[in-house]
Specification:
Elements: E1 3-5, E2 20-22, E3 26-29, H1 46-63, E4 71-78, H2 84-97, E5 105-110, E6 120-127
Parallel strand pairs: 4-5
Antiparallel strand pairs: 1-2, 2-3, 3-6, 4-6
Helix pairs in contact: 1-2
């Protein structure tokens, strides 16, 4: 059985999808763009966009009773691969600050366009246990 995960600490779904599903041993999030859930604003710079997307993922994972250290896989979508070094540095800092034991497995792909014309979107899989 799966349970829908929802938190007001991450942007609400703006289409026919949910923030995440809790499958018991796995939590799978939808892609999170860098929308501040309190203001609805998107930061201008890619560094702040990356941090906001990661904070949105963190809020969803925590709503499921997990922590950043439980994230085992991420997929990062970037609009411009020239931003990869900045995205990567902020990603690394986020996982270090949140005491991840190593780093999750990761895929990173450049895409032509993202919702709201943001520069990054991140989805994760976290494991319970």
């Amino acid at each position: 059985m799966s349970n829908v995960i929802h938190t007001d600490n991450a942007p609400a779904a703006i289409g026919p999808y949910v923030q995440a599903y809790d499958l018991g041993n796995l939590v799978i999030t939808s892609g999170q763009i860098p929308v501040n859930p309190q203001t609805g604003e998107v930061p201008e710079c890619i560094k702040a966009q990356t941090r906001q997307s990661l904070e949105n993922v963190k809020a969803i994972i925590e709503q499921a009773g997990l922590a950043v250290k439980d994230i085992i896989k991420t997929t990062v979508f970037v609009k411009n691969m020239d931003d990869f070094a900045t995205v990567n540095a902020e990603y690394q800092a986020f996982f270090q600050e949140n005491h991840h034991p190593s780093y999750p497995a990761r895929s990173c792909v450049e895409v032509a366009r993202l919702p709201k014309d943001v520069g990054v979107e991140i989805e994760v899989i976290a494991v319970r246990g």
